[in-house]
Amino acid sequence: MRNSYKSPLEGRYASKEMLYLFSEEKKFKTWRRLWVTLAETECELGLNITKEQVDELKQYMDDVNYEVAEAWENKVRHDVMAHVHAYGEQAVKAMPIIHLGATSCYVGDNTDLIIMYEGLELIRKKLINVMHKLSKFATEYKNLPTLGFTHLQPAQLTTVGKRATLWLQDLWLDLIEVDTLLERKRLRGAKGTTGTQATFLTLFEGDYEKVKQLDQKIAQKLGYDEVYPVTGQTYTRKFDSQVLNVLSQIAQSSYKFSNDIRILQHLKEVEEPFEKNQIGSSAMAYKRNPMRTERISSLARYVICDALNPAITASTQWFERTLDDSANKRIAVSEAFLAIDAILEIYLNVASGLVVYPKVIEKHIMDELPFMATEVILMEGVKRGGDRQELHEKVRVLSMEAGAQVKQHGESNDLIDRIIKDGTFNMTEDELYDILKPENFIGCAALQVDDFISQVIDPIIEANQCILGIDGDVRV
Q1: C-alpha span between 191 and 218 (Å, rounded)
Q2: Contact 323, 443 (CB under 8 A)
Q3: Which of 53, 140, 339, 404 is least buried, going by the fewest C-beta atoms within 10 A?
Q4: pLDDT tens digit string along 238-252?
């Protein structure tokens, strides 16, 4: 529909897989799966529920009659009860036992947890694929010297590959946090209206062991080993905050990467992919704007801010539950997942097609390296019998002259030519230019890349071969 609002995350950014996870179909089919699991387990534990009723529920589990549910919700103003009635119109024999003993959060909260965990699995898959792309880039360019920057001012050299390990390490730390959440997966389970399981205790005639079995068996049938030990009406909203904090961390890492690439593209050293027919500007036809990394920055800013929503929700829940979490949660959690999904799709695309310009990088190095090399030249001059203080003063004066040549006249850095002509340092032109080789100034950068990739990243990649091979999609 073009005459009503449509979220840009749906129309422009997020993948089909993530959009489906947060779709109504996924939600309501999961509700029905939960109702089937509840009835089946209650039947197994001895309640007056027949196999015929359970089988009828299973028959219509994936056949959601949405129009009927919508009509009921308009009437009763309660989404869960609307779907109970809609389900009951199909599974007539099972109608009396649908939702038996449960509260709305049995389907609502358990479904939300299932969807978030599946969302985290999808994010994990894309995160590891981005890491794989970056690890290959880092290895390819581990020996290519480039200017390092501190305070955005030229500093000691590093390598293009070593810089990529900084981006990669951030994602590795994010992966640890995602894995931590997934390793502790648990559902709300069947806890009742205020979390006391009072209704279930009544249904099982005071048999607490069966109440506990119900809780555990439901989780296990849904593929989970654990439930929250205690809840109010809802699972603790602290979990939503934890999840969005992790999504925010991925956004922060992606934001840092995108800003670095945008600056490097400004310097014409490294560029994001640019398609043959892509237009950079409607007015300036020559432009190659970094639209992909700009989009990462933009979406990342949204996620970082969005993480505040569940933090406030978690801290303002009254006693066992208050409903002011609901509307906020529907928007904040789903949109954060969709935005991070979009970010990782773009990150994958960019990391797969980064273009490096070694000659431009070398030119920028040689504009600055003479100044950086003066300490080495000074020490070498002293070794050859020079007076340290006299040589230091020479370096200072000649550097000031060369700096003025660059800044005031826009000329190339001629400091080395000035040192050669001065003659005080007792070094030949070949000897001076031999010192000036960029590879002499990268320290352990290449070795650090090798160590980091082989010891930290490769084991992760090797253990996740089955999920590799996806490429990011930039939709528009």
Answers
A1: 11
A2: no
A3: 404
A4: 999 999 999 999 999
Cα dihedral angle (227, 230, 234, 240), rounded to 10 degrees? Answer: -70
Could you give the count of Cα atoms lying within 13 Å of 221 in the half-sphere of its Cβ? 21
**What residues of the chain score a pLDDT lower than 50?**
276, 279, 282, 285-286
Q: Which of 175, 276, 190, 275 is nearest to 227 (CA)?
A: 190
Cα(468)–Cα(135) distance, integer angstroms = 13
Looking at residue 378, its pLDDT comes to 85
pLDDT at residue 285 in the model: 44
The whole-number pLDDT of residue 321 equals 92
Q: Which of 281, 315, 326, 454 is catalytic?
A: 281
Residue 1 is predicted with a pLDDT of 62
151 a catalytic residue:
yes
Size of the chain in residues: 476
* Identified catalytic residue from 7, 132, 135, 151: 151
15 is catalytic: no
pLDDT for residue 325: 87
| DSSP-based three-state secondary structure for 73 | helix
Report pLDDT for 476: 62
Question: Which domains does the chain show, CATH number per domain?
Answer: 11-97 (1.10.275.10), 104-360 (1.20.200.10), 374-435 (1.10.40.30)
The structure tokens listed for 295 are 């989009």
